[in-house]
């Protein structure tokens, strides 16, 4: 947009527009003029006044940095898989809502997803396989942090896992044992004590974005400061983990012995 067109758009003299855009003159135009020009140009007033290096308005920056996205029950829906592809080559940090879906057996997925109103068990199983294939072939490293009580509750068939038969629990622990060995160090799984530490289900896609799973939606952040905050939160879980990725197979083998 030319200075003349901007002057017409805002109803301000062209000389005033020139003063604002070039920084010439003894004083800056008043706030009304700056605001009108910023609105006409679709930029922020701070950027016009050289107070910010971001031309976007505050509303636009907020809209771009924070989004609310649908979250189908199976975690590899089209949107989150796109985020995994976007972050290829970066470390992915992941705190699941239950056990990590990509490590679950078909029997567990069938048991878990049968009551769901969203995806069918077959869709969940296919999604889990797709995710595992992606991890095997991706250039990304994956770190997963799970609360210890989640694993204990699963092994003993209590809480969320009440009614799950012992054979399915045995097979699931065996699968996690196998995958934690075979995929290490590409995939590293840590267990933390939820009595000392807490985390909502989150995924941090390198430096690009962080997504919180809140049930039917993902709350996704793209501004670097918040992404770094979530990454630091996850890294704290790993540093304070009671069971490291290296120690996990032995811990799982011991846990398996308690299944009845």
From TrEMBL:
Q: Which Gene3D superfamilies match?
A: lambda repressor-like DNA-binding domains (1.10.260.40)
Gene Ontology molecular-function annotations: DNA binding
The answer, when asked if Metal-binding is one of the entry's keywords, is no
The name on file for this protein is Xre family transcriptional regulator
HTH cro/C1-type domain location, by residue? 1-48
Q: Name one Pfam family in it.
A: HTH_3
Q: What is the lineage of its organism?
A: Bacteria, Pseudomonadati, Pseudomonadota, Alphaproteobacteria, Rhodobacterales
Which PROSITE patterns does UniProt cross-reference here? Answer: HTH_CROC1
Q: Where are the transmembrane segments?
A: 197-215
Which positions are tagged coiled coil? none
Q: Which UniProt keywords apply?
A: Membrane, Transmembrane, Transmembrane helix
């Amino acid at each position: 947009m030319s200075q003349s067109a901007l002057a017409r758009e805002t109803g301000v003299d062209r000389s005033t527009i020139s003063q604002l855009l070039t920084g010439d003159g003894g004083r800056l135009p008043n706030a009304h003029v700056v605001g009108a020009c910023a609105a006409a140009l679709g930029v922020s007033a701070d950027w016009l006044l050289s107070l910010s290096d971001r031309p976007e308005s505050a509303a636009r920056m907020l809209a771009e940095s924070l989004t609310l996205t649908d979250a189908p029950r199976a975690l590899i829906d089209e949107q989150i898989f796109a985020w995994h592809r976007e972050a290829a080559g970066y470390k992915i940090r992941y705190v699941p809502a239950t056990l990590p879906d990509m490590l679950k057996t078909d029997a567990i997925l069938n048991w878990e997803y049968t009551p769901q109103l969203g995806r069918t068990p077959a869709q969940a199983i296919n999604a889990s396989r797709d995710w595992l294939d992606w991890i095997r072939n991706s250039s990304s490293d994956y770190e997963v942090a799970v609360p210890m009580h989640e694993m204990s509750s699963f092994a003993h068939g209590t809480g969320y896992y009440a009614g799950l038969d012992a054979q399915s629990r045995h097979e699931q622990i065996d699968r996690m044992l196998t995958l934690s060995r075979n995929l290490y160090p590409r995939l590293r799984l840590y267990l933390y004590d939820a009595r000392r530490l807490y985390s909502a289900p989150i995924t941090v896609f390198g430096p690009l974005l962080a997504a919180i799973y809140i049930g039917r939606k993902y709350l996704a952040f793209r501004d670097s400061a918040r992404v770094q905050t979530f990454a630091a939160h996850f890294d704290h879980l790993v540093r304070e983990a009671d069971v490291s990725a290296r120690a996990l197979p032995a811990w799982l083998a011991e846990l398996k012995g308690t299944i009845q």
